[in-house]
Design brief:
Number of helices: 3
Number of domains: 2
Structural class: mainly alpha
Shape: rod-shaped
């Protein structure tokens, strides 16, 4: 039997349609592979970010501990100096004012209680600078 032009066209159309279906299947496989790779990259990035946050938290904690130790050391030195005799040349009211000023400064350095201005009677009583 001799093929008619119509049959030849159908075969070409069939072949083109099959190529299109094969290309679509290949594209679906590629998209699926890309999704898998994207999920893997996202999980890797999330793990990296989590490790970075954990490392940053550890470093911040270490810095806070160092700062606390330094502040404690400085405060101890200041308190040692407060405990030293001031000498006989200060009258009792001056010595009391000096001790109050030192205590106020120490409290302000560690963020405890009233400001130095309030403690020394120069502030507005609201914890501000009073100026």
């Amino acid at each position: 039997m001799v093929k008619q032009p119509f049959d030849a066209n159908l075969e070409r159309i069939d072949a083109a349609f099959n190529r299109a279906l094969a290309a679509e299947a290949s594209a679906r496989e590629s998209v699926a592979a890309c999704r898998i790779e994207a999920d893997r990259l996202l999980a890797e990035a999330e793990n990296h970010a989590r490790r970075l946050v954990e490392r940053t938290d550890r470093r911040l904690l270490a810095v806070q501990r160092i700062a606390d130790a330094s502040l404690q050391h400085a405060l101890s030195k200041l308190l040692e100096r407060v405990a030293e005799p001031l000498g006989d040349d200060l009258d009792p009211p001056a010595e009391a004012r000096l001790n109050a000023a030192i205590g106020a400064l120490a409290d302000e350095m560690i963020g405890a209680g009233a400001t130095a201005q309030d403690r020394l009677g120069h502030g507005d009583g609201k914890g501000g600078s009073g100026t």
